[in-house]
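Narrative of accomplishments. A recurring question from our advisory board has been how the design workflow behaves on a single, concrete structure rather than in aggregate. To address it, we present the structure tokens for one chain from the evaluation set, followed by the sequence designed for it. No filtering or post-editing was applied between the two.
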């Protein structure tokens, strides 16, 4: 393993992040505050508790998941797309590094950025509501796996995209609606029975449910299914990336 190369790619991506650290820090704080004003105050005044948890606290895991998923995808997709756009991807491919080292550098940086944003949102939420984490180890496990898996997914999008518009296509039109419809701001038990069954086909439900369980000990689906879902998604993304580098799809042409 060429750790020097991994570190060079990782630090290059992190340097770009540190150049806009103020924007990266302020943006999630403002957006989280707005969510609490709209959902916590307006809707929370009408919904006292959900499954024994105050509504303001109930939406915290969903807020974190929404930002972490979108940030991980955006950072990873842009990170690998930009070298394609300016042509430096060929220098990277000709260097003495394998696909795993490239993935570790780019995906590791994107996952780190998403983790930072998630922790910032958690800290901001603690200013508005009393956030108690019943299973801190499980919470960090779910958070890290989500950052990693969606950074891998974003890496795939960055290779697939052929222009800057396509970079935002899947996050905006697919991921964000799935998160909103995946129980981010409500429990799926509040839905009519037929919609509860339909919602179970949404893979994001399992991620948010497991993450919420780590906070409050309540979940819409069994915790084992949540872990299986995120592990399967991570393995699928790794398999696709291996195939992409093996075949050169959208990289060498």
């Amino acid at each position: 393993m060429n750790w020097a190369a991994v570190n060079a790619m990782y630090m290059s991506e992190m340097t770009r992040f540190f150049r806009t650290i103020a924007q990266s820090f302020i943006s999630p704080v403002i957006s989280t505050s707005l969510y609490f004003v709209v959902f916590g105050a307006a809707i929370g005044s009408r919904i006292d508790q959900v499954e024994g948890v105050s509504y303001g606290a109930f939406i915290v895991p969903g807020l974190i998941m929404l930002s972490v998923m979108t940030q991980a995808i955006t950072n990873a997709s842009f990170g690998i797309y930009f070298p394609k756009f300016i042509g430096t991807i060929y220098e990277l491919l000709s260097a003495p590094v394998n696909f795993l080292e490239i993935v570790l550098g780019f995906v590791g940086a994107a996952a780190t950025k998403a983790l930072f944003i998630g922790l910032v949102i958690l800290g901001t939420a603690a200013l508005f509501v009393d956030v108690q984490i019943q299973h801190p180890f499980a919470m960090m496990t779910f958070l890290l796996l989500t950052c990693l898996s969606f950074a891998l997914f974003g890496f795939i999008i960055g290779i697939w995209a052929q222009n800057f518009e396509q970079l935002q296509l899947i996050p905006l039109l697919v991921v964000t609606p799935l998160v909103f419809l995946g129980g981010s701001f409500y429990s799926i038990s509040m839905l009519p029975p037929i919609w509860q069954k339909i919602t179970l086909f949404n893979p994001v439900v399992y991620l948010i449910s497991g993450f919420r369980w780590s906070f409050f000990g309540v979940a819409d689906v069994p915790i084992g299914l949540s872990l299986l879902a995120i592990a399967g998604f991570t393995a699928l993304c790794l398999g696709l990336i291996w195939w992409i580098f093996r075949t050169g799809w959208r990289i060498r042409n």
